[in-house]
Amino acid sequence: MADLKNRLKKRVINLIIKEIPNWVIVLSGGRFGCHFLLLGQLGGKDQSKELDTARENSIQVIWSTLRIEKSLEDVIIHFLFTIATGIDKERDFFINEIGRSSIISYNDKKKLALKIIENDKLLKGKERDKLIKDLSKIMKYRNALAHGSLEYSVNHGVLLRFYSGRNETIILNDEFLTTLEELYKNTNKTLTEINNKIIERKKTELVNTQSP
Q1: In the predicted model, what is the mean pLDDT of residues 180-197?
Q2: 21, exposed or middle or buried, with CB in 10 Å at 0-12, 13-18, 19+?
C-alpha cells in the first residue's frame, strides 16, 4: 500500500510540473491585459489569493482523478483475478506492469470497467448511463484544469479557458466547485459499491470451490 501511495504521489508531482497552468492573463473590464504574469507575481492580493486557490484546486482534481482511475483498475483486477490471499504472480504482474502503469490510459480502463459492469449487470439503465457520463465529465474537467489557461477577470474572478471539441470557459466559483466535488464523491461511491459486489461474488465462488 505504501508503495502504491508513493507511485501515485510521483505521478501527481509529474503532472503538476508538466501540465498545471503556470501562467495567467490579467483581464480588466472584460478586456485582455497586455502581458502575461506568473502566479505569485500578481499585484493585487485578491487576484493572487484566488489564483493560488484555483491552482490548489487543480492539483486536487488531478489527485481525485487518479483515485477514480484506481477504482476503475480495481474493477478490472477484481474481475480478472482471484481474491484469495497469498502470492499470485499473474495478478501482481498485471497490477504493477499493466494496470497501474501508463500502458493503458484512463479511457482504456474506463472502457474495460464499463464492459465488465455491463456484462455482469452490476449497474442497470439510468445508473449505468449516469456513470458513463460522469466518468467522461471527470476526464474532461481533469484535462481542462491540467491543460487549460487560468485567467483572472475583475468582474467574474478566476476563469478557466480550455478546448474540448470547442472553446469553453468555466467560472471557477463556489457553485462550480461544489458541483465538481459532488461529481467525484458520487462517482467514487458508485465504483466502490461495484467493487464490493465483485468481491462478494468472488468470495462466494471461493467458498464453493473449497467446499467438499
Answers
A1: 92
A2: buried
Sheet holding 157-163, edge to edge: 31-38, 23-28, 149-153, 157-163, 167-171
Distance from C-alpha of 11 to C-alpha of 98, rounded to nearest angstrom: 15
As a three-state string, the secondary structure of 101-158 is CCCCCHHHHHHHHHHHHHHCCCCCHHHHHHHHHHHHHHHHHHHHHHHCEEEEECCCEE
Structural domain that includes position 129: 2-210
CB 66 within 8 A of CB 12: yes
pLDDT of residue 95: 83
The chain-wide mean pLDDT, for the chain, equals: 76
Each residue's pLDDT tens digit, 126-163: 999 999 999 999 999 888 888 888 888 878 788 888 88
Q: What pLDDT score was predicted for residue 50?
A: 74
For the CA atoms of 91, 138, 141, 58, the dihedral, rounded to the nearest 10 degrees, stands at -60
Ramachandran bin of 40, using left for φ above 0, alpha for ψ from -120 to 50, beta for the remaining angles: left
Helices 125-147 and 106-119: crossing angle, nearest 10°? 180
- Nearest-angstrom CA–CA distance, 14 and 90: 28
**How many domains are contained in the chain?**
1
96: which residues sit within 8 A by CB, 6+ positions away?
A: none
